[in-house]
Each structure stands twice: as structure tokens, then as C-alpha cells.
């Protein structure tokens, strides 16, 4: 059975498209390398940048190992606090991916649930959900995220801001991006609810919740997968933007955005490596995610087959 399933998966249209798309293969390879680097950060890093006992201020602001004055122990140099830039990137990449995946999961859960409910129920329920979605769409996503972030920080006591920063970011980005899922799922649900299998389920006494979860939901997940893939890159960028503005991850637990903000403060003093290398990693990550999302959108589009 397992071999037959693997054989069917290998011969599927999606697998064929993946094997014949260099964009999909390269982006998947880049993402795999970045994910493994983030996952294995404690093993690959030369130091824990969050552990003050491992930092030596005499090694601060060292250039990359190949530059004049560089130290072989710090391949990409160090920042003003003597943190190894290479190690900081690995740990910062892990935080950025955690925020990205968690916020996409939160946005997907909210958007899919509201989209199913609105598309299936219709009427006032659908109208109320879509009006809230329209209001959120009328504002730039970063402003909504800043608003949610500011409210959450206002509720929490000041001494808890650093500890709760990652959860506040996940909440802010997740509540910003659910609209796309809701609108897409709503449209697909309105089409699916008119089909014969839904009418048959009604006749058989299946409840509305059962029809939405068991019958309609599996048939509307295709577009959601594409949206989730593209939104991962958007979520990482939003986190980096918030951290760059100083309302994201603290300097004691820097993400890629925080590292870029820290490095930007020292850029014109000649310490270019602190901002350049995290920026390159962020660009590669977002570009690979977007390329993979574009390929997935085209591969799942029956009109392009």
C-alpha cells in the first residue's frame, strides 16, 4: 500500500510539474537549507548569542574572517556586543520562521473558519464577516499589525514585554492576514454548497457543521495552500518590519529584523557586516518562499495544465 501511494504521488501532475520546474527545485532546496539551519542552530552555531556568559566584549565589532583584522573564530564577524553574526543569524532565522509559521497557522485557522461559516450560512452572518474583512482590507497590513501590537503591549505590564514579544507578534500578524483566507474559502464554499454531494449529505441528516468540516472543507483547501505559502513570506517580512521599527523582538532575542535594525545603527561607522548578512538571508528566504508559492499556484491551476 505504501509503495502504491508513493508511486501515485510520484506520477501525479503536481510531482511532474515539480520535476520539470527549475524554479520549484531551487526554491525548495534553498528553503530546505534555511529550515535545517534554523532547526539545527544550537548544533551549527559557534556560540549562543542569547547567553551573556559566552560573549567577550574584547571581541566586539570584529570584521569577517577574510577581511583585515578578522578572527577565524567569527566567520561573519561580530557586532557591538561581541555576538557572532553567523550564530545570531541562525538563531534569528529560527525566531523569524517560528513567528512566520505560527502567524500563518493562526491566520489560516481564523480565515478558514470564518470563510466556511460565512459561505455556508450566508445572510447576516456572511455580511457581518465580509464587512469586517472589508474594513481590514482598507488599511495597510503593517498599520493593522502595529495597532494590534500596540494594544497588546498596552495591556501587558512593561516588565513582560520582552517575554511576550514573540506571542504579541504572532497575534498581530495572524489577525492581519486572515482576510485573504476568509474571502477565498467563502467563495469556494458558496460554490460547493450548491453541489449534489452537499444536498445528499443534508438528506442523510448530516448537520451543518458536519457538512462544512467533512465535505466542503477538503474541497476548498487547494487555494488555501497557495495562500499559506505566499503568506509565509509576507509574515516573515512583516515581522522583520515590526522588529526594524523597534516594536518586534527585543535585542536580547534578536530575529532577522532586529539584527538588521541593530546593524543599521552602525552601518555608516563602517561596521557593514552586521546589517548586510542578515539582510541577505532575509531576502533569500522571502524570495524562495514567493517563488515556491508562485509555482504552486500555477501547478494547482487546471487552466494551465
TrEMBL record:
Pfam families per the UniProt record, alphabetical: BPD_transp_1, OppC_N
Cell membrane as UniProt keyword: yes
Transmembrane segments: 95-120, 132-152, 164-181, 223-245, 266-292
Organism: Tabrizicola soli
Protein name from the UniProt record: ABC transporter permease
Record-linked PROSITE patterns: ABC_TM1 (PS50928)
Family to which this protein belongs: Belongs to the binding-protein-dependent transport system permease family.
SUPFAM superfamilies, sorted: MetI-like (SSF161098)
Compartment(s) of residence: Cell membrane
InterPro entries: BP-dependent_transpt_permease, MetI-like, MetI-like_sf, OppC_N
The keyword GTP-binding is assigned to this record: no
Topology in membrane: Multi-pass membrane protein
Keywords: Cell membrane, Membrane, Transmembrane, Transmembrane helix, Transport
Location (main, coarse): membrane
Residue ranges of domain ABC transmembrane type-1 in the record: 93-293
Residue ranges the record marks as coiled coil: none
Amino acid at each position: 500500500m505504501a509503495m502504491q501511494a508513493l508511486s501515485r504521488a510520484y506520477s501525479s501532475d503536481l510531482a511532474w510539474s515539480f520535476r520539470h520546474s527549475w524554479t520549484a527545485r531551487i526554491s525548495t532546496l534553498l528553503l530546505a537549507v534555511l529550515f535545517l539551519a534554523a532547526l539545527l542552530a544550537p548544533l551549527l552555531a559557534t556560540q549562543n548569542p542569547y547567553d551573556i556568559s559566552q560573549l567577550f566584549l574584547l571581541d566586539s565589532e570584529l570584521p569577517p574572517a577574510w577581511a583585515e583584522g578578522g578572527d577565524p573564530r567569527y566567520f561573519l564577524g561580530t557586532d557591538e556586543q561581541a555576538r557572532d553574526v553567523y550564530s545570531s543569524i541562525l538563531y534569528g532565522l529560527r525566531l523569524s520562521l517560528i513567528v512566520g509559521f505560527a502567524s500563518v497557522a493562526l491566520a489560516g485557522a481564523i480565515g478558514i473558519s470564518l470563510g466556511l461559516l460565512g459561505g455556508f450560512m450566508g445572510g447576516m452572518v456572511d455580511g457581518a464577516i465580509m464587512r469586517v474583512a472589508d474594513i481590514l482590507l482598507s488599511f495597510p497590513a503593517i498599520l493593522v499589525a502595529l495597532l494590534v501590537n500596540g494594544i497588546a503591549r498596552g495591556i501587558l505590564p512593561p516588565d513582560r514585554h520582552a517575554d511576550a514579544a514573540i506571542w504579541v507578534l504572532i497575534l498581530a500578524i495572524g489577525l492581519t492576514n486572515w482576510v485573504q483566507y476568509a474571502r477565498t474559502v467563502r467563495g469556494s464554499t458558496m460554490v460547493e454548497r450548491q453541489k449534489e454531494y452537499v444536498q445528499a449529505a443534508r438528506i442523510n441528516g448530516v448537520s451543518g457543521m458536519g457538512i462544512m468540516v467533512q465535505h466542503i472543507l477538503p474541497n476548498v483547501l487547494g487555494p488555501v495552500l497557495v495562500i499559506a505559502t505566499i503568506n509565509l513570506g509576507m509574515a516573515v517580512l512583516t515581522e522583520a518590519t515590526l522588529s526594524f521599527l523597534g516594536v518586534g523582538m527585543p535585542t536580547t532575542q534578536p530575529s532577522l529584523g532586529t539584527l538588521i535594525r541593530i546593524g543599521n545603527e552602525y552601518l555608516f561607522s563602517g561596521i557593514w557586516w552586521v546589517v548586510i548578512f542578515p539582510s541577505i538571508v532575509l531576502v533569500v528566504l522571502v524570495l524562495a518562499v514567493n517563488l515556491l508559492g508562485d509555482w504552486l499556484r500555477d501547478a494547482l491551476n487546471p487552466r494551465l495544465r
